[in-house]
């Protein structure tokens, strides 16, 4: 199905969704997925609670005061490690390309030598007959 045919098939459904009553539209937020819009929004509920009692939600992970050795290493040496890795990839690709170029030159030279040899054999066969 071409993209134009797909748009022609879905356009009537999109129009009906867009022209629907705004009170009947569905929220697409992560907390309110597939729930109809109600009179009181979450902002109204949150503002009705006193700000003195409010506490941020617990993420479930305890905060560690110990430094992470991996984070410290890559924080200090991440860029040099990246430079060495990219430099080695570049060097490998450069050497690979050079090797292919030399190999193609060698193959061409070998073919030319074979062609000269075959011509000489042809000349010898013609002289004998």
Chart the SSEs and their pairings.
Layout: H1 3-18, H2 42-48, H3 69-128
- Catalogue the unreliable spans: none
Tell me the number of helical segments per DSSP (H or I, 4 or more residues long). 3
Ends apart, CA distance between termini: 69 Å
Strand content: under 5%
Main β-sheet description:
none
Label the structural class: mainly alpha
Explained architecture:
With 129 residues, the chain is mainly α. It has a domain at 96-129. Helix content is 64%, strand content 0%. It is built from 3 helices and no strands. It has helices spanning 3-18, 42-48, 69-128. The longest helix has 60 residues, at 69-128. The relative contact order is 0.03. The model has no long low-confidence stretch (mean pLDDT 78).
Give a short overview:
The protein is an all-alpha fold. It is 64% helix and 0% strand.
Features:
3 helices; 129 residues; 64% helix; mainly alpha
């Amino acid at each position: 199905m071409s993209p134009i045919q797909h748009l022609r098939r879905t356009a009537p459904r999109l129009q009906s969704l867009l022209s629907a009553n705004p009170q009947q539209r569905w929220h697409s937020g992560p907390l309110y997925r597939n729930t109809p819009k109600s009179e009181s929004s979450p902002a109204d509920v949150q503002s009705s609670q006193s700000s003195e009692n409010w506490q941020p939600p617990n993420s479930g992970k305890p905060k560690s005061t110990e430094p992470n050795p991996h984070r410290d290493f890559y924080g200090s040496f991440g860029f040099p490690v990246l430079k060495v890795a990219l430099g080695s990839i570049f060097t490998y690709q450069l050497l690979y390309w050079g090797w292919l170029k030399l190999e193609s030159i060698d193959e061409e030279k070998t073919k030319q030598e074979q062609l000269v040899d075959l011509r000489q054999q042809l000349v010898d066969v013609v002289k004998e007959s």
